[in-house]
Structure formats: structure tokens, C-alpha cells
Amino acid sequence: DQQVKQNSPSLSVQEGRISILNCDYTNSMFDYFLWYKKYPAEGPTFLISISSIKDKNEDGRFTVFLNKSAKHLSLHIVPSQPGDSAVYFCAAKRENQGGKLIFGQGTELSVKP
Amino acid sequence: ETGVTQTPRHLVMGMTNKKSLKCEQHLGHNAMYWYKQSAKKPLELMFVYNFKEQTENNSVPSRFSPECPNSSHLFLHLHTLQPEDSALYLCASSQDDNGLNSPLHFGNGTRLTVT
Q1: Which DSSP helix (H) or strand (E) runs through A30?
Q2: Any chain B CB within 8 A of the CB of A98?
Q3: How far is CA A87 from the centre of its chain?
Q4: Which pLDDT belongs to residue B1?
Q5: Which of A47, A38, A31, A48 is nearest to A92 (CA)?
Q6: Using CA atoms, how far apart are residues A45 and B4, in angstroms rounded to an integer?
Q7: pLDDT in tens, B33-60
Q8: Which among A87, B27, B105, B112 is least buried, having the fewest CB atoms inside 10 angstroms?
């Protein structure tokens, strides 16, 4: 049973618009959430994270929102740029679990000029 | 070199072969990980090493045998694999294996094909 789900395998957005990537989780013990970005032929790179004590974390064009009651998080990218085209993975873990992450399946974002 | 380096980038092996994947990190981290990404599936944790000691084996079959001689190097020894073991094998490192704010740094992976 998948504990972290990204139900949209792909998303296409126009350059300059907002990209919203969604992620749901089932395990209420998760208390730290991360987003990773992956280009073809490269490993995933860390993008942004959020602790369960917060509901929003912002870093430049990237904002992650956490709704604990709905067990849902989302990544907003605004404005979207063609270089943002990649696969985005949502991941979750319990406190003090270091790098032992549970990943979603990924959403492939395509930003069109 | 910087970051996490994996070799080889691509590997094709028969079911009776024995091969090894290598990972090296230059970040001064103490924890290293093997993850596996099969087609259309999420990344799955296989093994965790912290200060050279294995701290997690995520029910991985014995045909996969990890080795961590020091905090900078990690190997995955492969023998008598099955075609369904074909996948992208990713090595990662982090400062430690129990810190909250300890993001993983991944290598570029080894694309393994078992024929």
C-alpha cells in the first residue's frame, strides 16, 4: 500500500503561469515532507521541505503548503519557467529518520514557452 | 570531484553474472543509502549505513549485498539477479541517518539491465 501518492503523472503549464503539484499521504506519523526535482539522466535534487508544525514554507519561486487534516501537500511554482520542466517527487518521513524517505511516484512537469 | 558519484552509469548483466555498483561521496556525510527506482514505481529504500554500520535492510533479497568500507564509499554487490531487478539504482548520502533536517544528496544512478 502506497503511503505517499502523487495522482497526477504529468502536468503541462504555460511559461509565466503557476504550476501546482499535489501530493497525498496516508501515514499520520509522518512529520517532515520534502520535494525533490529530477532531470533526465540525473539524480533527484532537494528542492524544498516543510515540517508538520508549519503549514507553509517559501523559498523564492517555490512554496510548499501542508494541510495536515487532509494529509495533503502541494508545491507551487510561480512564475513557471521552461527550466522547471522535470519530474517532481514528493517524499515524507518521521522525525529522526534522517534520509529514510517514502517517495511518491512523481509528477512530470512540462513548462511550455 | 564534488557531491555523490556513482559508477558505472549503465550496466547490462546476465542472470548468472556477478557485478558491483560503486558509490563515493565527497560531502563529509556519515550516512549512505541505496535506493531503487523500477519503471513506473516510486523510489524505494533498500539499505542504510550510518558511520559504516548497516542500520536498515528494507527486506531486500540476498542477491543484493551491500558493503560500506568507510563513510565515503558504498558498494552494492549483485549476483544471480532476475530480469525484474532491472531498474535505476541510486546512491545517496546525508549528514546522518537520524537527523530531521538532513536532506539526501543523490548520485546520478546506475541504470541496470538484467538479461
Answers
A1: none
A2: yes
A3: 10
A4: 53
A5: A31
A6: 11
A7: 999 999 888 999 999 998 888 888 888 9
A8: B27
DSSP-derived secondary structure letter, A69: T
Output phi, psi for B85, to 5 deg: -80, -5
Euclidean distance between the first and final Cα of chain A, in Å? 38
Contacts of B23 in chain A (CB under 8 A): none
HEC readout, chain B: CCCEEEECCEEEECCCCEEEEEEEECCCCCEEEEEEECCCCCCEEEEEEECCEEEEECCCCCCEEEEEEECCEEEEEEECCCHHHCEEEEEEEECCCCCCCCCCEECCCEEEEEC
Q: Chain A to chain B, count of Cβ pairs less than 8 Å apart?
A: 73
Strand partners, B18: B79
Cell numbers 523510489 label which residue? Answer: B43
Contacts of B36 in chain A (CB under 8 A): none
Q: Do B102 and A2 touch (CB under 8 A)?
A: no
Q: pLDDT under 50 in chain A at which residues? A: none
| φ, ψ of residue B80 in degrees (nearest 5) | 45, 50
B2 pLDDT higher than 70: no
Instruction: Give the mean model confidence (pLDDT) for residues B52-69.
Output: 91
Output the pLDDT for position A111.
98
